[in-house]
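Homework-ish question, so no full write-ups if that breaks the rules, but can someone show me the predicted structure for this set?
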Amino acid sequence: MYHKHLLAISTALLATAGMAQAQETVKIGTVAELSGPGAPAGTNWRDGIKIAVEEINAEGGILGKKIELSEYDTQTDPQVSRALVQKAIDAGAYAILGTIYSGSTMVNMLVAQQNSIPQFVGSEAPGIVEKGNPFVFRTSSGAQKGVPALTTYFKDTLKAKKVAVAWVNNEFGKGGRNVFVEEMKKAGIEVVADVPSEQAQTDYAADIAKLKQANPDAVFVYMNQEESARFLIEAKKQSLAMPLVGEVTLTEAKVIELAGGAAEGAIAHVGVTATATDVPGIGAFAKKFETTFKRRPTHDAIKGYVGAWTTKYVTEMVGELDGEAFAEKMHGLCLKAADHPKILLDTCWDDRGEMSRPSFMVQVKNGAPVVIGTVPAN
Amino acid sequence: MSQFLQVLLSGLATGSIYALVAIGFTLVWQAAQTVNFAQGEFVMLPAFFVLIGMSVFGMPLWIALIFGLAISIVVLGVLFKKMIVEPILPHGGITLIIATMALGILLKESVKEFYSAEAQPFPSLFPGDPINVFGAVLSLQDVFNLVISLGIVVLLTLFLNRTRTGRCMQATAQNPAVAEILGVNVKRMILYTFLINAALAALASFLITPVYLAKFSNGETLGLIAFIAAIVGGFNQIRGAIAGGLLIGVLDNLTAAYVTAQYRAALPLVLLIVIILVRPQGILGTSEGRTV
Amino acid sequence: MNAHIRKISILALLALAVLAPLGQGNYIVYVLTSWLIFAIAAMGLNLTLGYAGQISLAQASFMAIGAYTTALLTLSGWHWMLAMPLGLTACFVVGLLLGYPALRVKGHFLAFVTLAFNTLVFLVLRNEDWLTGGSYGLVGMPRPDFGLFKTMKQLHFYYFTLGITVLAALAMWGIVRSPWGRAFKALRENPIRAESLGVDTRRITLLAFAIGSVYGGLAGALITPLVQFIEPGSFGLAHSLRILLMVVVGGAGYFFGPFLGAGVVILLPEILRFTEGYYLIIYSALVIVMLVFVPTGLIGVWGRIRERFWPRQQVRADMSEGARLK
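A: Not a homework solution, just the prediction itself:
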């Protein structure tokens, strides 16, 4: 009996404390991979958000309230990420930004959903928007949208008849590989070699030798950063001649830095890229990021930045801090960069939280990624 | 055919680096009867010493390499011996093994927090010019890896068998009590073993990092592979470690090319279990006389 | 007298475990639940490491076997109470099969075999996606429902886990106290003498490893309904290492060591939050320092303090140096 009272009192106390705070600030929780294998992606995501929050607070915050940003480190562990989303929500978060690894997002998005808290994620696995979760929103197109955007490139530009796919065997690589194989089937292009590799693999000789033997017209490369770089180094050594085409990662600044000359000529389809500096918002962001953190932003940084700004824009469209109204507003929403400059590019979300926006084809030329074409939103 | 040759030669080149790390394992095993679970991190770290030498102190590459080697010998050789092995060994072998596991985490996390969580490029020591061998392509780097690793092994074997110090080290490894009675400075001999291990790890680091890239988590993979190589080859023999390293390097590639890429990492592990089942002293190892 | 104090303190701790989650947010209850689960896994490993003196680096993979068995069966409609024992049986059998070859030879071969095994299990779970869901894992496992007592609520699930933990601890207490368990102590004290007295050291060590693995499986069977999502990455080698360090930090060979060790490892990130990313550095450095000065773990620290201020008669000769690992 006594405990029941204690429970009731303490809950009441907590609740009032929470409310008193909520009136002064808007709490946003960044739940990201700040340590463990996902650390490079997670820290960029967080730093992109930091810049956005600084800008938003300088402009007076959301609905006149300053953002109070809390960071939670998932250690790249899905179980921890789930607990931390719960923790952020217990602490009164109005929105959750993160996570990036799809395995984590798949689990922790259930918690945000149960609590009706909007969540912006950096994950690209197709499954995330297929679970009927009305509170999850992407900050970049899912693999099932990004990879098909490449199909026309393989078919029309490269005129490929047979292709190969080299992918890293984790939840990220597998998702991309499955969509790619499916797309090629639809486009009537034959996949002549299907080469999985391990994360942190030391020797890519067998992988490249296999690709060489299969002799496809082009190779689709879907790996994380270091793996992409190691792959490119070995490909150059064995002088793999056909075009190497990737999605997002293959032409990232970090990969070019790591692979050196071996990245020359690599092609990738990218959702947002810091190299698209002729887009005014992206150029300004890239510059600010570089002066603040002394390194160049990755697409994860831009994703975080867009996620934070969207939270502000849409909340102010709704006019109050209401997670359910926010989610309702987001579905089918299109934001124009002309009206909402920090969204960077015209962006739409469909009724499942999937997003679409124009994207770019990029190629590494003279050690730098260059935009070689744009792909309309699909 | 050219694919087979390619896979074989590349496997040998990578395997020779595994062998270097595996030799260090076996030496430490012989000297201190312990398994160093931080061995992978011992290979990860020297590359970062070189990067620090170049980026913080502005050294040219070759000076930075010497700097990296020297720091490695001090930190991973002397300090490891004096601050971890010596005080913990009296508490028992398992305690020391667990301490090396904690050390592995410590080194890995320190590099991540104090240097970078992202992979770093590492300058190549040799030109990457490709050499064509019957349709297979090797880089000069690969050839040097093989030559240097095998050269080191020959030198090390000569040192251990032909010099007084080397023979004292072997005596210490075989029976420290008897060696002591015979006037061998056992403590010093054990220290030498740790210095050699550190130097081998540093060398392996300099050879593999240009291709593998410098990253804090490198030790997880490298440590596991070298560990398997050492056990498969024979935990108490230098030539066993060589054989194990080359075998794992080649097998890994052959599996990926011809059997299954999904399970390429499994084959060395299965091999390990089979070896322990049928020949626990390893392919080239000799059965240990010690019973307790 | 001493037995009384012991009983009272155990009851007090139990009462604390019952009261701890009351009035706490879901997150704290979650953390407490995972503390109990990891304590079970560590308790099993303690039998292998602390009592039988063998390193096992596969505790996480036994958790995986328990977790996946329970997950697959509960997903196909079995009740948790029926699915769990099957998972435990699987762990026991695999433990025997794995331990047998490794324990034939002297030395740390069990460590090597379990190291390889842990990675093999990871590969199988990732590659055989027709069964295990591959790298996407399995999601949506139901929590056990006992009619009147449903565990869907976080707090209810905590009490469910606490009940299982107490039962598991009692079983372990029985094992350690049985004549068979006493053979361990003989073994630890002096293996050669134990052998000459007719203790079949190999069989006992093998059984200890297999039973320790069953506790790993039980922890896995509880992880499944707690997280309601499992994937191969959660059962990697790093997690086995983490459980091993729990045992050592708490105090290998002490009955309550695993609880303490698991508590430290699970709660430390919370306590050291102010150090931001450095907590693993601090933790691993502290472990090394501890192993240098007090290799018997945190319980050993307490023992030293007590010896220093309230010296008393030695009760157990084998513990005069704490539980020494060889």
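Now go work out the reasoning yourself. Hint: The longest helix of chain C spans residues 201-227.
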